[in-house]
Write a structure and sequence with these properties.
Layout (H helix, E strand, L loop, with lengths): L1 H35 L10 E5 L4 H7 L1 E16 L2 E17 L6 E12 L1 H7 L5 E6 L2 E10 L4 E14 L3 E6 L10 H9 L1 E4 L7 E9 L2 E14 L1
């Protein structure tokens, strides 16, 4: 009985040591991964990585993680020659495979949400145009146009619908533009307020799927397969 108690105590102690070592290795790996994850050609600010599953060390030995959650903030991509800022991307990655020497990582599947604030959409629009939340799933676009016939500049705001085109382009188009009896006014206003911006620089394999207009900005569902994260 005494020997059995000793074996049980040793088992508990060794189990505790294993857990401690496993958690320490996990913390170190997450910290290392945060500095290595790359979002294509886009520049990113802070990155937070959370590797799920236990034990961690057996997943390392297999060079594959069942699930990894990633949050990347302040991503600056390119949109039609203009920089566009994605304030945050939260993604759940499945079956993340590590390359030789742990220098690369590829997710079999990825899903999440990207947020583009209205200030960033304003920066990506034409000069002199501002974009804000318009309520009821619409955005309010305001721009100034010159009216040659009147010899003056008019500022107009329109409610616009935002759609996703071809999986990588955000399209903003006014629902209605009152002509006010001024020849060519609608065309001039639309030339300012209607625009499209393709979002580039995201990792290969990651696509934009669905867009929603929310008070805090555009919320875009992202998904993909064989998404290369680093290396």
């Amino acid at each position: 009985m005494r020997a059995l108690r000793i074996l049980l105590i040793l088992a508990v102690v060794l189990g505790g040591v294993f857990v401690a070592v496993d958690r320490a290795a996990l913390y170190f790996a997450e910290s290392e991964a945060e500095g290595r994850i790359a979002f294509g050609d886009a520049e990113a600010g802070s990155t937070d990585v959370s590797i799920k599953g236990f034990p961690f060390l057996t997943q390392v030995a297999a060079s594959e993680f069942d699930r990894v959650d990633v949050t990347v903030k302040d991503i600056r991509a390119n949109a039609a020659g203009r920089e566009i800022r994605i304030s945050e991307i939260q993604a759940e990655l499945s079956r993340v495979t590590l390359g030789a020497g742990y220098t690369s990582a590829t997710a079999s599947r990825a899903s999440g949400t990207a947020v583009i604030p209205y200030a960033a959409l304003t920066e990506a629009a034409d000069d002199g145009v501002t974009v804000a939340y318009g309520g009821d799933g619409k955005v309010k676009v305001t721009g100034s146009v010159e009216i040659p016939l009147l010899g003056r500049t008019l500022t107009r705001s329109v409610l616009s619908t935002v759609t996703l085109v071809d999986g990588d382009t955000v399209r903003v188009r006014a629902d209605e533009v009152p002509g006010e009896g001024i020849p060519g006014l609608e065309g001039l206003v639309r030339k300012k307020t209607d625009f499209e911006r393709g979002i580039g620089g995201l990792p290969e394999g990651l696509e934009l799927q669905k867009i929603e207009v929310a008070p805090g900005g555009l919320e875009i569902s992202v998904t993909g397969s064989d998404v290369r994260l680093a290396g």
